[in-house]
Design the sequence.
């Protein structure tokens, strides 16, 4: 293999792979083939920093650190002890005059180049930057020396450093701070489509999987939608992989590029060797550096695959990887992987394994394994012998697709087709985004409140008659319909129907003959709705006598009847 291909693989993985055996050479060639071409570029997120640093902490410690940063021109100290809150003074440090303001910040928010720090003075909050008349009215960088930092997300905002008393971490923070003056850019990692978001609708709460797994607090609820703070986002990706609809999607690399690269890599390895590879997903540059310490332990048939971050790929990519011809998937986490990302990855692996085990694969086809000094080899659970491709297996050939649900359907349909005697239904744990909506017809009044909140078109009405219908594949089990039903007539059941046609067909959940207006004969509601209203309003003084009869009139006839009575 040419040197440029070897270098391309090394650049992608972050380390060299051995090439001594035939399988090792085939693995290198497969990766080189898979990585042909550039990934689709994404937009950039910009930061602008003037280098103004606020050191927050006890005064002696803050002054000592400031002394170690003589090259940082704009430096001020927020002393959490030693003076009355809100008061200021000037301290001389190594020939520099450093402004000192006393008081523990009431709040800090923002990111590199745009931090807002609130302090209390005379019982009222003040903006530190404005009070100190800082250029631009913001603080660019924050070094938090408190043992319990003021900001505590698992992944801190860019430009915010909290060493927590660790001298090594403090040295690393100071080194980074010296270089944080100027213009900076990072990729826009996550895209959001509010039209298919299942978070909330009409004031009803639904899915919040993305909010629960973001380690950087970059997501928030704004109205009935999700807001992504692109400056806080570090591209961990767990929000997009956890999103059941694809409303949040990973942009760099996008789903199309990732799937196409994996398909080419797996196909090339199988073509050259006649054997089935295993895939090992790991994330980021730090993951590559730590995985490089285990290179000699990696079995020759295991293809390492670097994601931008380990949380950025999930069920649709893993199921496609198996459909393309991989035998198993190992997802590697590292000590620096945020705990919420680890939990998210493990949950999704459990969900995918539930689907695969229902189709005859082992219940640990997707494994999540930590890599670290105290863990030992991550390959101890993998067989070191590469399995041969069986004659009855056909690898999927579909190209990369951006729509998440379409990818899931393509992968599942292919895997079902490769399964002998596939069950008609696979039971799944609650919360897995496949399943049915069940309606209690005795309670349902066909008010269509569920239709109005369904974000995916899973629950549908009928313009011609009172009828509630359902397309199971469109349902992501978000719970909006269940929470919106005023009669408590809806519940959810997670499952996967293996017959694609049945999954996609429109079936009736409930229907009635329309109730016709007693005045003009026009159909305007359902019999069950009339009965429900009569039950709830029985005995109410406003509906005594003819008042109850008016419930059985359409809107036009009801108005005419009321005016007739007054005249």
Sequence:
């Amino acid at each position: 293999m040419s040197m440029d291909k070897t270098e391309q693989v090394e650049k992608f993985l972050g380390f060299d792979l051995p090439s001594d055996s035939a399988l090792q050479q085939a693995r290198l060639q497969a990766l080189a083939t898979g990585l042909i071409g550039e990934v689709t570029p994404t937009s950039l997120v910009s930061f602008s920093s003037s280098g103004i640093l606020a050191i927050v902490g006890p005064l002696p410690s803050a002054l000592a650190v400031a002394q170690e940063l003589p090259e940082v021109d704009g430096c001020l100290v927020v002393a959490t002890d030693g003076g009355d809150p809100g008061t200021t003074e000037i301290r001389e440090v190594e020939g520099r005059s450093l402004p000192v303001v006393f008081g523990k910040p009431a709040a800090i928010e923002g990111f590199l180049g745009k931090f807002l720090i609130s302090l209390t003075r005379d019982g009222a909050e003040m903006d530190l930057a404005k009070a100190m008349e800082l250029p631009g009215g913001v603080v660019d960088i924050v070094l938090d020396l408190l043992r319990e930092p003021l900001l505590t997300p698992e992944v801190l905002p860019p430009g915010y450093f909290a060493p927590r008393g660790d001298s090594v971490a403090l040295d690393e923070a100071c080194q980074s701070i010296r270089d944080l003056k100027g213009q900076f850019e990072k990729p826009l990692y996550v895209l959001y489509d509010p039209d298919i978001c299942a978070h909330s609708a009409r004031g009803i709460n639904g899915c919040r999987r993305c909010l629960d797994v973001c380690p950087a607090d970059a997501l928030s609820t704004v109205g009935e939608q999700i807001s992504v703070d692109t400056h806080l986002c570090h591209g961990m990706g767990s929000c997009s992989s956890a999103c059941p609809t694809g409303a949040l999607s990973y942009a760099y690399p996008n789903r199309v590029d990732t799937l196409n690269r994996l398909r080419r890599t797996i196909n090339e390895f199988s073509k050259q060797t006649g054997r089935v590879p295993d895939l090992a997903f790991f994330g980021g540059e730090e993951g590559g550096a730590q995985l490089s310490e285990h290179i000699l332990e990696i079995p020759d048939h295991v293809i390492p695959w670097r994601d931008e971050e380990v949380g950025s790929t999930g069920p649709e990519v893993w199921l496609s990887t198996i459909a393309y011809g991989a035998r198993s998937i190992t997802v590697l986490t590292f000590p620096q992987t945020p705990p919420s990302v680890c939990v998210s990855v493990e949950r999704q692996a459990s969900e995918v394994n539930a689907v695969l085990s229902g189709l005859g694969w082992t219940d640990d086809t997707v494994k999540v394994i930590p890599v670290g000094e105290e863990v030992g080899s991550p390959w101890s659970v993998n067989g070191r012998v590469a399995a041969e491709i069986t004659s009855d297996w056909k690898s999927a050939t579909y190209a990369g697709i951006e729509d998440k649900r379409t990818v899931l359907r393509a992968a599942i349909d292919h895997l079902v087709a490769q399964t002998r005697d596939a069950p008609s239904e696979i039971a799944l744990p609650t919360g897995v985004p496949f399943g049915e909506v069940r309606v209690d017809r005795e309670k349902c009044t066909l008010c269509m409140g569920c239709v109005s909140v369904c974000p995916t078109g899973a629950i549908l009405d009928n313009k011609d008659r009172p009828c509630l219908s359902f397309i199971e594949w469109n349902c992501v089990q978000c719970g909006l319909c269940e929470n919106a039903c005023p009669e408590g007539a809806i519940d959810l059941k997670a499952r996967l129907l293996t017959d694609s046609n049945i999954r996609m067909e429109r079936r009736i959940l409930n229907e009635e003959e329309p109730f016709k207006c007693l005045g003009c004969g026009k159909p305007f509601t359902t019999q069950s709705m009339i009965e429900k209203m009569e039950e709830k309003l029985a005995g109410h003084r406003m509906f005594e006598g003819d008042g109850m009869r008016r419930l059985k009139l359409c809107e036009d006839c009801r108005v005419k009847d009321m005016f007739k009575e007054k005249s």
